[in-house]
What does this fold into?
Amino acid sequence: MPEITVRANGHARRVAVDTRSTLLDVLREQLGDTSPKKGCDHGQCGACTVLLSGRRVLSCLTLAVSCDDAEVTTAAGVSHAVQQAFVDHDAFQCGYCTPGQICSAVGMLDEFADGWPSHVTPDLTAAPELTDDEMAERMSGNLCRCGAYANIVPALRQAAGGPG
Amino acid sequence: MKPFDYRTATDMGTAVAEVSGRPDARFVAGGTNLVDHLKLGVAEPDLLVDITAVTSAAVEDRDGGLWIGAGVRNSDLAADRRVRERYPVLAQALLSGASGQLRNMATTGGNPLQRTRCVYFQDVTTPCNKRVPGSGCSAIGGYTRYHAILGASEHCVATHPSDMAVALSALDAKVHVLTPEGERSFPFVDLHRLPGEKPDQDTRLQHGDLITAIELPPSPFAQQSRYRKVRDRASYAFALVSVAAALDVADGIVRDVRIALGGVAHTPWRAYKAEQVLRGQPAEVASYRLAADAEMADARALDGIDGGNGFKIPLVTRTLVATLRDLT
It folds into this structure.
C-alpha cells in the first residue's frame, strides 16, 4: 500500500493507505479523528466537509492517496468564531451534521471575504452582501435533517461579524 | 470496490500514453463523479492517473478571449473577474451547479465529462445500455423526469447533467485535447454525441485523449448573456430544464443570438433552429415564442411511471422566453 503524509490539524502523520480509501475513512479509521461524519458517502449531504489546503471540500469524494502532504483541517482542528456562534444560537439538534457545517461555514466565510459571488448574487460584477439568502445558497451543500437551518443562519450572521 | 493502482502524472504526454495504452485506466482530477462511480460499481478502473499536478490551473487572456486550463476549479472560474464581466452566462451556470464544496473540487476539464445522473445508469442492478451495452434501457417507460425530450434514441434517453457545458455550448467555446498522436482542437459543441446505437459513448474523445484547456473566443455580445435553471429545489439540484442565452440587439432587432439548452438531451443542446428563427426579428416576446416553438417542434415526450416528461416541452418554451426577455 502507498504511504502518504497527512497533515491533519497541524500534526503530520505517515500512514499507509489503500488506494481505494477516501480521505474521510483515513481520517476516521486510521487517524482517529471522528469529527468529519459519514452521512451519505456520495457527496450529497456535506457531513464529511473538511478544509483541504484551506478550502472546503467533501472528504468522502476525495481519495486519501491524492492528499499526500496536503494540509487538512477538520472541525476538531477549527478555532473560529463560528463555533461559539453555533453554541450561542443553538444551531443544531442532534449535532451529526454540525462538524461539516462548521468547516463549510469557515470555508464559505473565506470565499465571501474573497468577493466570490453566488447563484443568488444580484450583480456578478459588484461586491456581494452576506444576506440570509446568500448564506442559505452558499451553505446549500450541507443538509441538516433536524432542520436547524433557522438557527444556523443567525449563527453565521454573528460569525461574519453582523448582528446575531 | 475493485482494487486499482494510482499514479501521479509527471507530465501530460506521459499521462496520455499511460491511459491510452491501458483499456481500463482512467484520468482523475477533482474525482467528484468518478469516486462516486467507484463506490457504486459503475466504474471499475485498474489504474487511476491523477492529472491534477500537470494540468494548468490558470485562466489566461489570449487573442481577446480567455484560455481556461483544464485544472481550473469550477469555483475559481466562476469567481474570475473576467468571466463575471465578459461571460456572465458561464459564471451563472457554474454557480448554479452542485455545492460550494463540489465546485472547489470539480475542474474545467472534468465537468463536461461527468456522466448522466440517470438513476438506472447509477444503479448496477438495473439494465442500462450506457453502462452495459445491449442490456436494455430501464428509463424508457420508467422514471423519466430527468430524461431527454430531444435527440434521444430507442437505446438511451439520458440527459447530460453539466450546467457549465450548456454555457460553453452557447459561447462557441473550443476544446483543446492532447491525444497520443498530438494536440488537436475542435468546437465544444462537437465534444458530446447523441446516444444513437452507442449510448455508452458520451463524447467523441478516444480512450486516453486528455482535455487540456477550454478556449472562449472574444464575443461582442457575450457580456449580454444569461443562464436560467429550473429545478426541483432552489439550490444543489440538477436541472429539469436550463437555458443559456446571449443576445445582440440593435434598434429593437435581434442582430445575433446564441441559445443552448440543458436537461433536455444526451448533449448540451445548441438550439440552432431557434437562433435561426430569431435573427433579424424584433426583440420581443412574440419572436421568442416563435423561436422556442421552432426548436420544440422536434421534441418528443417520454411516457413513464412518473407521468412522463411531457411537462418539459412547455417548460423549455417558457424558460427560453423568460431568459431572452430578461436580456432584452
In short: Chain B touches chain A through 37 residues (CB under 8 Å).
